[in-house]
């Protein structure tokens, strides 16, 4: 570290060299002291902020909620960018957390499954349908269709809570027989009725589902073309 001095004004003698060393050491000491002072200020501010947030949890909650509401797109972009740039770090962190919190995760999962049975059933049904390629390609990313299918599972769970009778969301035209995983092919049956029905379908119902599915596809296609022309 070299201090900025006009060395030409200092005589090139033993006393002059001592004076230069003295001034340089003084400059170094002042800079070190300044850095220490800045570090102490940062630490003091950190402690102050931590105490303030601790004593103002409700105010912090309201502030965070307001910030998140007003910066949804920014937060989404920042989070996506962070995940993209820190994949390995995130993977290691998640693995470490799961390793150190096995019991906590087990309890949370059990509680979540208990309180969200319709969501679990929906995901299980969708996963099975994907394995069988039973979801029409033009409905794969349709948010409206996802909500419709989810509503069947929510309604089934709601019925069960009211009368205590277990119910299933059934495919009228079974997936194993080539039926589509589509809201127009779903019905809610009691578990007993569904077990009796098994994987059978009336040919008339099967034909009607095929017609309805094709009609729905045409409607969606026309709506999409109309939207493109308007835009």
Q: Could you please describe the fold and organization of this structure?
A:
The chain is mainly alpha-helical and 231 residues long. The protein has a domain of 123 residues. Helix content is 73%, strand content 4%. The chain has nine helices and two strands; from the N terminus they run αααααααββαα. The chain has a two-stranded antiparallel ribbon with strand order 1-2. Helix 6 crosses helix 7. The N terminus is likely disordered.
H/I helix tally: 9
Sequence stretches where pLDDT stays below 50 over 5 or more residues: 1-8
- Biggest β-sheet: strands ordered side by side in the sheet: 1-2
Task: Sketch the major β-sheet.
Answer: 2 strands, antiparallel
What sequence of helices (H) and strands (E) makes up the elements? HHHHHHHEEHH
The rounded Rg comes to 34 Å
Query: Beta fraction of the residues?
Result: under 5%
Class computed from helices, strands and strand pairing: mainly alpha
Distance between the termini: 64 Å
> Roughly how much helix do the residues carry, as a percent range?
over 70%
The number of E-state strands comes to 2
Shape: elongated
Q: What is the residue-averaged pLDDT?
A: 84
